[in-house]
Amino acid sequence: MADLTAHPVPDRHGQNLFTTDTELHKLLALYLPSDLLRHMQPHFERLGALAGGPLDELAHTADVNPPTLSLRTRTGIDDQRVNKHPAYVEMERLALSEFGLAAMSHREETLGWKGKMPPLIKYVLTYLFVQAEFGLCCPVSMTDSLARTLKKFGSPELVERFLPRFQSVDFDELAQGAMFMTEQAAGSDIAATVTSAAQDDAGQWRLTGDKWFCSNPDADFAMVLARVEGSAAGMKGVSLFLLPRQLEDGSHNHYRIIRLKDKLGTRSMASGEIRLEGAVAYLVGEQGRGFVQMADMVNNSRLSNGVRAAGLMRRACAEAEYIASQRQAFGKRLADMPLMQKQLQKMRLPAEQARTMVFQTAQALMRSDGGETAAYPLLRILTPLIKFRACRDARKVTGDAMEVRGGCGYIEEWSDPRLVRDAHLGSIWEGTSNIVALDVIRAVTRENSLPALQAHFGALLDDAPIAPAFATALRGALDRACALAMQASEAAKDGDVIARQAASALYHTCSAIAMAWEGARGGSSQRIEWSQLVLLHRVLPRDPLAPTGIPADWTQAAPATAAIPA
């Protein structure tokens, strides 16, 4: 029998994706209370082991066996159902029941921890899970976001009636959620919504119309945007409704899944077209404020999109690093070759930027939900920032990682093609790059988010014992990035032209500052170096025809600081 350990084609399958991620350990120690981290450690380790082996196998099986749609029974009875492969159902059980990823934020006890879990725990678990399976994390995110929106805007009667199923981790009782928002003509232009809502003689709301792109189409409940008959034109006429799949008598509600989409990626998870034919629904919140209320759900999903993009990049980088460390060519390890070292570094930077922004945005969400006034405008701008930039970066990082594996990376037996296909989703769903970049500027204009952003990242700089020259360079970059964003917000229509440039500048500068703080306060010289490279290569001007290195004064001794508390 051949010695597989000496085989020339490296295979990382079976590694624990948590225990091998030492940078993640340092960040968790910095961001989480020690007692919570101790409690979660075995759960992180278990999910890391699953993601590196069994879960990855389930994900591959579900990817090559996508769901199908049945419309009738063999005896001719109308009974539409989405047929899911058992591998996908098992992943649903792991995510929704065993780890409680969708219910966690709405429970007082999860995974044996009494009290509310901070958002960061949910996102770290998602970060690990998505490194194996991306598609299912979309329904997980929508379920979580639907429950959040229902709690925030639903009437007490609606919340009491339906929320318990979203809080459950019993696989036979829990509910899954979706959002049916997109229409053929509307897309991101919600004001063009034509699906109609009218009350029948019994006072029930009935929805009629077509929804063009509905992921998780057989979800137990969906949030739906519809225009109330006789209401104002444009955005003011759009309201938000909760649509149950089943009626009180157990029969199917009055809507049909017309067909399932044949997608580039997320093949494991069904997406379909829905025709509403007088479907019974419940008004959520105030009539005519549907988009404002749905925006809360969309923003929560956008944050999840950023988390998932970060997870994809981590998986791609870890695979490439493993291959480079194990693969021999021309008498050397790939990892010892200068060009490969440079290629890996160019992949690590956006992956680590995204990871840092996940932690920073999750903390802002926790503070905002806790009632801190200054935290909401910070969260309001960080959310579209991570959605915009991390999702775009993931497309390139996953492609570059495929190249490191070489010809095998182009073969569907390996994870690389799935990562590349799935990575393209993030820049499309819950708003394309243009839409989300404009939302960054909208946060500046409507929420006055820049002062909160400057205060937060300025405070991180003040707390980071780094070389004075480097701190000065970071502070100057932050000031200029904020000035560019302000210019975009004040320039009326002409400001749209620089919206993406401003969003990228803010993301790169803020992530560099946060990485420098993490490195300095968490004892990671590597993170400080990554921060310096981000500032040097993604923010500051440089001569493309000249080699560049980190300025010498950026690495000089930092000022003395008090000892970091344990």
Dominant shape: globular
Task: Please state the oligomeric state of the protein chains shown.
Answer: single chain
Give the beta-strand count: 13
Main beta-sheet strand count, sense and barrel state? 5 strands, mixed, barrel
Mean pLDDT: 93
Strand-and-helix sequence, N→C?
HHHEEHEEHHHEEEEEEEHEEHHHHHHHH
Query: Which structural class is indicated by helix and strand composition?
Result: alpha+beta
Low-confidence stretches: 562-566
Percent range of helical residues:
40-55%
What is the CA-based Rg, rounded? 24 Å
State the end-to-end distance. 51 Å
- The proportion of strand residues reads 5-15%
Number of helices: 16
Give, in spatial order, the strands making up the sheet with the most strands: 6-7-11-9-8
Provide the descriptors you would attach to this structure in a database record.
566 residues, alpha+beta, five-stranded mixed β-barrel, two-stranded antiparallel ribbon, 16 helices, 13 strands, globular
